[in-house]
User: Fold these one by one.
Assistant:
Number 1:
Amino acid sequence: METSTADLYDELGEALASVSLQFQDLGGQTRFTGTVRTIRCLEDNGLVKSVLNSPGNGAVLVVDGAGSLNTALMGDMIAEAAVANGWAGVVINGPIRDRAAVAKLPLGVKALGSNPRKSAKESAGEVDVPVEFGGVTFRPGARLWADEDGILVER
Ligand SMILES: O=C([O-])CC(=O)C(=O)O
């Protein structure tokens, strides 16, 4: 991605929503863009695992974990699968784990932080529904841009 989110915002303005939550950049790729896919879940990453093990076609997976910091929603194995399956990145409203290994992968990863405790694997939750956090609605199919400054999404 060549253009910064700041330049993009100056160009397109209110056509874009800007995420106000302050995410950490935890992947080896800090600038990424792609079409939004979504998951809503709570302390259960079964759906995150199965979706990131399916073809990404350059998309960005937005995971709304309700901001719970209690369990990690992605680790290095799932992140490696995301790379192998052609995902551009993941934005997680929750923590990850294995951050040292994840930092080396060619994947965009924005998350709230890290927690070594694993999630449940029941696959409870929903896939490709609109999700909302940081003052922004993420709709499946919308374009998303992320870099060191933050995250922009088409309204
Ligand atoms: O299994 C999990 O919860 C996630 C994990 O540790 C990994 O992806 O390596």
Number 2:
Amino acid sequence: MSDAILTLRGLRKSFGETEIIRGVDLELLPHERHALIGPNGAGKSTVFHLVSGMLQPSAGEIVFDGRHIEGRPPQEINRLGLSRSFQITNIFPRLTVFENLRLAVMRPHGLHRKPWTLVSRDASVREHTERLLEQVRLQGRADAVAGELSYSEQRSLEIAMTLAADPKVILLDEPMAGMSNEETAYTAGLIREVSRGRALLIVEHDMQVVFALSDRISVLVYGQVIATGTPAEIRANPAVREAYLGEEVAA
Ligand SMILES: Nc1ncnc2c1ncn2[C@@H]1O[C@H](COP(=O)(O)OP(=O)(O)OP(=O)(O)O)[C@@H](O)[C@H]1O
């Protein structure tokens, strides 16, 4: 019996004749920060698409919190407590920060239309939204139009939206892409805070961030996990250095 909150077993995905994910095994423990790294085209985003339900696996199992979720629709997987970062394109640019986040908070409550609960629900939705804004330090920007936020502020909003349903597992796909060093450091700190008490699976190309943030790292090369271990173990692994890291992080 495994303690993992998320388990991938023999996961495979082909596009036409080409097998891109070639038997991936991976375990995410309940409170760990786990990075999935690997060269361009290794299949990292495809793994995320499979786990979040955007793509159907060709074979294999995905077990989340004791339930098989392979092939289930994204909304259902999300409702079970696995949340993938919303891309910036999911932010409504003309709505305010508060309005965007409130929509994300309301989504898991469904569309119950019981008038006698509306007032109390409104208050709790507002409270929850404010708490999330504080958590990602956007409370001062609540009334700003989302489309006018800076890039890293948009990413913070995106992270808050990911947290809205209080997920057990968060998947973040390249959250630092396109950021300056300063923005990267800020966002890394934020991710560290908001992932506390949850499991995080992150795909990120910035190796400094990956090695500083992760409890464990899995290395995906050509659709297979060639190693999983602590940052120190991964850094010292000869196969990983040969296939991916090279001398970059050898020091
Ligand atoms: N829908 C698709 N149809 C056909 N091939 C695809 C499809 N999606 C991805 N691929 C191919 O699968 C391979 C893995 O892509 P994927 O985006 O998962 O890699 P990645 O590790 O996330 O890469 P990067 O680090 O560059 O983001 C690539 O060769 C890509 O061209």
Number 3:
Amino acid sequence: MEGEEMLLVNDISKSFGGIQAVKDVNLEVKKGEIVGLIGPNGAGKTTLFNMISLFLSSSKGGVQFLGENISRETPERVVEKGLLRTFQTPVGFPKLTVLENLMVVPKQKGEGIFSTFLKRKSIVQHERENYYKVCALLEQFNLFQKRNELAENLSAAELKLLELCRQLMANPKIMLLDEPASGVNPVMLDKMVEHILRLREEGMTFLVIDHNLGFIYRICDRIYCLANGELIASGTPEEISNNERVKSVYLGVNENESA
Ligand SMILES: Nc1ncnc2c1ncn2[C@@H]1O[C@H](COP(=O)(O)OP(=O)(O)OP(=O)(O)O)[C@@H](O)[C@H]1O
């Protein structure tokens, strides 16, 4: 249902020794929203992503996903529940082709030679369905022509799209995108915007980190701004772009100068 709470971050904090990377942050994402997370280098954005996706434990506070406290789950369980993330540097397999990168499916739990033999038919069926799904995704993201290319030969923008496709193979309910626009040229950036907006039309929800504010303002319904680990502003793109604190910390504009 539109407007339903999907992700709720409650009063979350993280310290690394003496460094307070994230301090008492509250954040929410509703179903169907595209929410941005901005802030200067070292603001705590990636640390926050790492805690939401449970790659990192929080020092304090917790995360609710679809009304359920997931703070004690493993990253794998969170993926199974539908919370997926990308990384600043796409992961994937550089020495595999584009098609192979998407066909790689995690082995089922408890799968052995005997059970695999018994389930042979269903596995073949599963592989076939997977193949059709991969081809459809590659078509949608204009990567079908590159399906036999090694991933290491793709451009930065194509790698970002491949990373999106990899996450989509796992049927996410929400996608956390870490700098999807970095290294992407303006033409491909327009394509990236189109893809993200299309996915949202189809029901996807996003939380997006990016340093490219133009990109963030184009795609986001709401934006949170972090600085020194603390939330300093939240609002619509218009509100954030006119916020004096955001200008001063993020854009390096002095509050008095910009007034
Ligand atoms: N594993 C770690 N050990 C020690 N300090 C860390 C660790 N990870 C992050 N930090 C520190 O926490 C703070 C927040 O870092 P973080 O990477 O979350 O910021 P960011 O907003 O994602 O920055 P950027 O935009 O440059 O990626 C920084 O001061 C960073 O040096």
